[in-house]
Amino acid sequence: MSPNAVGMAAPFRWLGKAFDVGRRNPKALFGALALVLAVVFAVSLLQMALQAATGGSGTGVAVVMAVSTVVSWLVMPPLFGGVFRVLDATDRGQPVLATDVFNAFGPGKGGHRLVLTSLVYSLLYLAFVALLLLTSLGQFFREYFAIALATPVGGEPDQAALVALVQNTPASAVLWLPVAAIAIFAWMHASMLALATAALRPASVAECVVAGLLAVLRNFLPLLGLSLVVMVGGFMLALLLGLVLGLVIGLLSLLSPALGMLVALPLLGVLMLAMYALMFGFYYHGWREIFGDAEPADPAAPGELAA
Questions:
Q1: 3-class state of residue 154 by DSSP
Q2: Residues near 286 by Cβ (< 8 Å), separated by ≥ 6?
Q3: Transmembrane stretches, by residue range (predicted)?
Q4: Cβ-contact 207, 234 below 8 angstroms
Q5: pTM of the predicted model as reported, rounded to 2 decimal places
Q6: What is the mean pLDDT of each run of 10 residues along the chain (307 residues)?
Q7: Segments making up each domain of the chain, as ranges
Q8: Using CA atoms, how far apart are residues 164 and 130, in angstroms rounded to an integer?
Q9: Other residues' Cβ atoms within 10 Å of the Cβ of residue 256
Q10: Distance CA 216, CA 223 (A)
């Protein structure tokens, strides 16, 4: 499974196609994305409820976070793979339902491949973070969080310690910031392309992991160029949306706090739905161009998807 090299404009073309992902079957695709978001919200609410039940105990919070991480590792990769399969079916004009997003949990549907592929990339991310903590930038964050943890709940952090931390941190720590940002972007691109491979090709876990890495290595500059543009443009767009939505919700909250909340939650859901659609659409079209379309998915029966 050898990835193709693409031009600098290719990622922008994929992003353009991502704006049109729901044209052929919007009910199935956006329904599937809504189901995934519902699961994400449910897991988050359960985690917050369990953390509140611990009464602020450090050990209890750590256990809840560990359990939540394991649950996310087991649940989210098959769901993401299901989104890629629903998207692939809609793009090819095949019959598909929104609930097919859960098909990867069935036996023989490649759910274990998706989970293990995601797990490998999670471990690679943790390994990178561990290495980063050995640098001067990592030392800064270690000492900063030590100061934060020593701060009483509701209290102010030790200002003298913060000033001393900034003064004692070498200037070279700043140089690690772009390195970390580029590495995280590369990891994100590789992991999503690997998940797309695991969802749409009957490959082994090792092949899926390597496919994502090779795809990013062969197309590093085009993906980096897009990442820089999206980072700057996304920041400006997020700032603008934050100002507008904050103003609208703030004015509504003056009339009634409940009214502001009733407007804020649906808006947040719509924004996240749009972001998920763009993200999966981008990586799906990128995957098809990078890995070619020589192995299309098997035709699916109504209400079913091929593994």
A1: coil
A2: 10, 11, 14, 193
A3: 61-84, 114-134, 175-196, 208-229, 235-255, 262-284
A4: no
A5: 0.85
A6: 90 93 89 94 87 73 83 93 95 92 89 96 94 88 82 73 83 86 93 96 94 96 92 87 82 77 82 93 96 54 43
A7: 10-291
A8: 24
A9: 10
A10: 7
